[in-house]
Write a structure and sequence with these properties.
The protein has two domains: 32 residues; 114 residues, Immunoglobulin-like. The protein has a five-stranded mixed sheet, with no helix packed on it. Helices cover 19% and strands 44% of the residues. By secondary structure, the protein is of the alpha+beta class. The protein is elongated, with a radius of gyration of 25 Å.
Length: 150
C-alpha cells in the first residue's frame, strides 16, 4: 500500500513538473522581444518648436530610441506661436520609411486643434506607439509636421 502511494505521488509530481516546464517554455516564447530603431524629423510651419519652456533649444529631430513591440514613448516639446495672429495646431506624420511602418506605428499628441495666441507657448506631449504585432521592421523613420494655421 505504501509503495502504491509513493508511486502515485511520484507520478503526480512528475506531471506537475512537466506542466510547469511547459508553462515556463510557453511564457518564454510569448515574451520574446524585438528592438526597433526609430527616428523622427520635425518640420514646423508658423510655429516654433523647442525642447525647453524658455525657447532656447530649437527642436529639429526626435530620436525615439530603441522600441519594442507594445512600447509607448512620450516626448514633451514646447510650441510657440511666433507669428502675429492666433494659430490652430495640427500634427501629421509623413514620409514613413519603410512605407508600411504606419500600419504598426502611430504618432499622436495632446494638442490637436489647440489655439495658440500670438507669442504664447504651450507644452505638447507627443506619443509614439508600436503595435504588438509589428513584423519585418527593424528601423524606421518619418517626418513630423507641426503646423499652426490661422
Amino acid at each position: 500500500m505504501a509503495v502504491q502511494l509513493t508511486y502515485r505521488l511520484a507520478t503526480i509530481m512528475l506531471a506537475v513538473i512537466a506542466v510547469g516546464a511547459t508553462v515556463i517554455v510557453t511564457f518564454a516564447v510569448l515574451s520574446s522581444g524585438k528592438n526597433i530603431r526609430s527616428f523622427g524629423t520635425i518640420k514646423a510651419v508658423n510655429v516654433g518648436v523647442y525642447w525647453d519652456s524658455g525657447c532656447t533649444s530649437v527642436t529639429s529631430t526626435v530620436d525615439w530610441g530603441k522600441m519594442s513591440p507594445g512600447d509607448i514613448k512620450n516626448v514633451t516639446l514646447y510650441m510657440k506661436n511666433e507669428g502675429n495672429v492666433a494659430v490652430k495646431l495640427s500634427l501629421a506624420a509623413q514620409n514613413w520609411n519603410p512605407a508600411n511602418a504606419p500600419n504598426y506605428i502611430s504618432l499622436s499628441w495632446n494638442r490637436e486643434g489647440q489655439i495658440v495666441d500670438t507669442a504664447s507657448l504651450v507644452a505638447a506631449t507627443l506619443t509614439l506607439s508600436v503595435s504588438w504585432d509589428i513584423s519585418g521592421i527593424t528601423d524606421f523613420s518619418f517626418d513630423m509636421v507641426i503646423t499652426g494655421t490661422e
